[in-house]
C-alpha cells in the first residue's frame, strides 16, 4: 500500500510539473509571436520610408492579432523620417486558467523606425 501511495503522488507531481512547464512554454511562445510581428511591422514601416498607408495597415493588422500598436511621428528633418513604434500586448499564463483565475501580464515593446 505504501508503494502505491508513493507512486500515485509521484505521478501527480510529474503531471503538475508538465502542466506548469507547458504553460511556461506557451507564454514564451506568445511573447515570441508578438516580438516577431513587431519586427515585421517596423521593417515594413522602414522599407516604405514611413508611408502613412503602410503605417495604417500595420496598425490594423496588429489590432486583428490582438495587439495595440501606436506610431508617433518624431521627424526632425523631412529627408530623415523617424517614427516611435509602440506595441502593447497581453501574455496569458494558461496554468492559472485551470484553477479559474485569469492571470494576464501587460507587455510593451518600443522602438524606432527610421
Describe what you observe in this structure.
Helix 1 (2-47) packs antiparallel against helix 2 (52-64). It is built from 2 helices and 3 strands. The radius of gyration is 21 Å and the shape is rod-shaped. The chain has helices at 2-47, 52-64; strands spanning 68-73, 83-92, 104-113. The longest helix has 46 residues, at 2-47. It has a 3-stranded antiparallel β-sheet, covered by helices on one side. With 114 residues, it is an alpha+beta fold. Helices cover 52% and strands 23% of the residues.
Question: Characteristics of this structure?
Answer:
about 110 residues, single chain, alpha+beta, about 50% helix, 2 helices, three-stranded antiparallel beta sheet
Average predicted confidence as pLDDT: 90
Individual helix count: 2
Silhouette: rod-shaped
Low-confidence spans: pLDDT under 50, at least 5 residues? none
Query: How would you classify the helix and strand content by structural class?
Result: alpha+beta
**Order of SSEs:** HHEEE
The helical percent reads: 40-55%
Sheet with the most strands?
3 strands, antiparallel
Rg estimate, integer Å? 21 Å
Write the layout of secondary structure elements.
Layout: H1 2-47, H2 52-64, E1 68-73, E2 83-92, E3 104-113
Antiparallel strand pairs: 1-2, 2-3
Helix pairs in contact: 1-2
Amino acid at each position: 500500500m505504501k508503494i502505491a501511495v508513493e507512486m500515485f503522488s509521484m505521478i501527480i507531481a510529474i503531471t503538475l510539473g508538465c502542466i506548469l512547464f507547458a504553460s511556461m512554454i506557451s507564454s514564451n511562445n506568445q511573447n515570441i509571436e508578438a516580438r516577431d510581428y513587431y519586427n515585421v511591422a517596423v521593417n515594413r514601416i522602414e522599407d516604405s520610408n514611413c508611408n502613412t498607408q503602410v503605417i495604417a495597415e500595420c496598425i490594423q493588422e496588429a489590432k486583428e492579432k490582438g495587439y495595440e500598436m501606436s506610431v508617433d511621428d518624431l521627424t526632425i528633418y523631412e529627408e530623415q523620417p523617424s517614427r516611435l513604434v509602440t506595441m502593447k500586448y497581453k501574455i496569458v499564463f494558461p496554468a492559472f486558467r485551470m484553477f479559474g483565475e485569469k492571470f494576464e501580464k501587460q507587455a510593451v515593446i518600443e522602438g524606432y523606425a527610421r
